[in-house]
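call fold(seq) -> tokens
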Amino acid sequence: MNETDYRDLLRLLPVIPILVTLGRTGRITETAELLNIPQPTVSRALARAAAVVGTELTVRNGRGIRLTPAAQLLIPRLQAALAEVQAGLDEVRTQSKQARGRVAVAFQPTFGEATLPLLIRAFSLQHPAVTFALLQGPRAECLGALTEGRVDLAIVAPVPEVTGTLGAELLYAEPLRLVVPQNHRLAAHRSVRLEDARTEGFVVLGEGFGLRSIFDDLCREAGFKPRITFEGQDSHTLRGLVSAGLGVSVLAPSGVDHLTPVTPVRWAGRSW
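ret:
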């Protein structure tokens, strides 16, 4: 584009909305009303546009006007240009509304297998510009990080009692099951009670983990004190210890059991 063409384009830009509206209505009066401008402004805009183009864009037709072949050729191009500009504006506005920044999340190890990755994936599809910082640890550590403001969100179980400005919501509920080795005496039972395993050695998470506190409560409700044979830091380790015949455990179903079944381990019992 040379300098003359650029100057002509600058002169034409302010009247493009008028020309496009006129092409839609075919009447100066209606064009002025739609754009909320005086009729003389429309007439002057047509004169300026004709001077830039180098030919008349309208001719009188009785008491109205008629678009010339030049206008009929030009106006569709102007409509397409405005549509492109509008599409660009919409895209920019949509992008500007997208969330940005970093979300710090603390979570217990049991949520790292399936729950947290699925949540992050779903959120990232809607807000791809957001990044995540992850802190994995026991329930008490996760809640401490949240209270101290080191993370924005903590995913823990069970749902904690909160005070002050913090809030808590139940994300989902899942069953707990007794996990036993493949050849265990309870493996063939369709259902068992927790007290049926009272003489067993239990493989459990360490103190401070949410599932450990739930397990301790369940045993108290069942009326016995469990014999702890091993304490681990994640459910994968517990499953491995159980499969090796080193005890039984109470765990939630694995989020990926349907993909990679742990064949030496069987589920026995109903949900608690």
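The chain has three domains: 3-96, 101-155, 177-268.
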